[in-house]
Structures are given as structure tokens and as C-alpha cells.
Amino acid sequence: MKSNSRVRLLLVAALWLAAAGVMPAQELHAFWRQTLSKLAQEPMEAVVEPVMEPLPYHKFRITLRSLSGVHFRALLALPVQGESKARPLPAIVTIPGYGGTQQGVRLSECMRGYAILQVYPRSQGESEALWKIDGPDKLIWHIASPEGAYYQGAYADVIRGIDYLVSREDIDPARIGLAGTSQGGGMALAVTALDPRVKVVVAHVPFLCDMRTAARTPNSLVKSLLDRANLNTEAALHTLDYFDPLQLAPDVHVPALISAGGKDETCPAVTIHAVFDRIPGTKSLMVYPDLPHTSCAGFYEMTWPWLELYLRR
């Protein structure tokens, strides 16, 4: 009888999770374990090129090899630290919005005493010249299966960027943070869940959050992209589940600062709230009632005390 009761409870729990759009953790973790294992087998093949510009800091263009042998680029900024040997730097990894070029953190912020790595995931920004998707939109590229879908490789690229940082003697591997806006914010939350080397995360109006709800919400970017491709289907949403911060949020165990805009139709606040609610650790959500989908000076300024609190020690 006890065995039958346990089976019934497990069945009820599974049905409740399915109705809530929550993927079984075992399935999600198995996919990402396999993905990260494949990434680890790829040699980094780092190429570091100094960028000769009249700047008050050091700037480098980094080319790295990632999942499936795809190469991508990143920009690295380091502050000038003088002649004496300095303590290894804390680092902030930032990721662009969906347009692929606008980064969440400026390279010049390295002068606060950080290494800043602007990662351009495959087919975005600086990386387009190395590899490009054969379709109009990243979200729906190879969406028939999570294996080979765009964000599998894109998340791996960010993790490979962290691999590169921790390989450097001038970077403190115990003080790495992630920050981004829109797509960059959603990716920052997801990668934080996947990579325990990340110690703090900041996500401004993050995209990719609770995509099942977004797919039903008029004017959201997820719905617009899926509808335009006639792919707003259960099969497509199941693939996107593997990359949704909503599914990954229970594994975010570091301090998370997140924002949402009350007038943001592109990345609706309700989708961001859903992700925030599932993060188990230290967290703070700033809601700006009149903010559409755009940058916010107040939140950007708030980013730095948050990062300082958890990366300066």
C-alpha cells in the first residue's frame, strides 16, 4: 500500500509540473551534462590579439573554439595596474542583446578594477565573420530538437569564455560575475545556473524567460518570432524549455540582481517574475513601472554596488 501511495504521489507531482510548464530536472540536467562534456573535449585554441587603440586601458580581441568546433570572438579589457605585481583581477562576463552587438557592460568599466570580457556568441556581432546561422532568427534555428539548437551552442560559447578567463594568471577564478541586458540578461541567468564558477549575476529586463508564457503573450518577442515562422507549437516550446531560465532557475545559487519593466511588451514583466520566484538564493528584483524594453540608467548604476559586494573580497 505504501508503495502504491508513493507512486500516486509521484504521478500527481509529475502532472502538476507538466501543467505548470516545468521540465523534469533529471531530463534537463542530463542534456546539459552531455553538452558540457562535449564542450570540454573541444580544444580552446585561444588566439589573443592586442587592439591598438588610444585607450586608457588594455584591449584584446580573443578568438576561441567552442561546441561543435565553432569559433567565436570576445573582447577583453584590462585596467592598467602599474609595474608592481598586482593581485589577480575579478572579472565580469557580459553578453549582447538579441541584435548581437549592444553589450550590457562597457569595456571602459574595466577601469573600476575589473577584467571585462564581452562575449559575442556564435553568429552575433564580432563572431558573425567566423560562423553564421543559415536562417533569419536565432531563437527558431534548428528548433526541432534541443541538440543542435542555437542556444545550446550560444550558452556553451559563454561558458568557454569563462574557461578562457580562468586559464589566465591575471584573473581570479573565484571572483567571476555575469551581467547582461535583454538576451544578455537571460543568457547570464541560464549560464549562472550551468556554471558554478559564476559567483554573482545581474540581468536587466532579461529575454528568454518563461518562454511558454511569453509565447501566449501578445507583442512579446518570443511570440512574434515563433508566430512568424509558424512554430508556436508544443514541439518548439519543448525544445526551448532546455534553454529557458525558468527551468534552470533552481540551480542559480548565487546572488542575482534582476530588473523588469512595467511597460515592457518585448520581455513581459510576468515572465521575469516567474523566473525570479524560482531562484532559491539571495536575490533582488527591481521593477520600473513605466519602463519599456530599454536600458535604465538607475539600474545600471545599481549594478556596480551589487557586483562590488560579491566580487570584492
Question: If you had to describe this structure to a student in words, what would you say it looks like?
Answer:
With 313 residues, the chain is of the alpha/beta class. Helix content is 36%, strand content 21%. The longest helix has 18 residues, at 2-19. It is globular. The N and C termini lie far apart (55 Å). Residues 9-19 have low confidence and may be disordered.
Give the tags:
single chain, 313 residues, alpha/beta, 10 helices, 9 strands, 36% helix, globular
Beta-strand percent range: 15-25%
How big is the Rg?
20 Å
Largest sheet: 9 strands, mixed
Task: Find the structural class using helix and strand composition.
Answer: alpha/beta
Elements, N to C (H/E): HHEEEEEHEHEHHHHEHEH
Distance between the termini: 55 Å
Helix content: 25-40%
- The pLDDT mean sits at 93
- If helices are DSSP runs of H or I spanning 4 or more residues, what is the number of helices? 10
Q: Write down the overall geometry.
A: globular
Q: Going across the major beta sheet, what is the strand order?
A: 1-2-3-5-4-6-7-8-9
Number of strands: 9
Task: Catalogue the unreliable spans.
Answer: 9-19
Q: How would you concisely characterize the structure shown here?
A:
The protein contains 10 helices and 9 strands. It has helices spanning 2-19, 25-40, 150-166, 183-194, 211-214, 221-228, 234-241, 245-248, 269-278, 297-311, and strands spanning 47-50, 57-65, 71-79, 89-95, 115-120, 171-181, 198-204, 256-261, 283-288.
